[in-house]
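User: Okay, second chain of the day. Same drill as before: sequence in, structure tokens out.
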Amino acid sequence: MGRTVNLRTMKVGQNGRIAKIEAQGIVNQRIRDMGIIPGASVTVVGRAPLKDPVALRLGGVTIALRNKEADHISVDLPE
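Assistant: Same drill. Structure tokens below.
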């Protein structure tokens, strides 16, 4: 993989692999319950007009994630 970025900074159409999740407590559990786990492939498919939330494609499912949750997720981008 290439460089590692914060999920919040990814642009629509970019894809990568979840590198790590640094959330704690209930936020950590919510993120993982949605299937966002280290090693999972993720693609940013859209953003709301005010940039929050972000729509992600993950394992054949589209989910929405708030920016305050996306801040806790690091993604490895391909080279």
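The longest strand covers residues 15-21.

User: Thanks, on to the next one.
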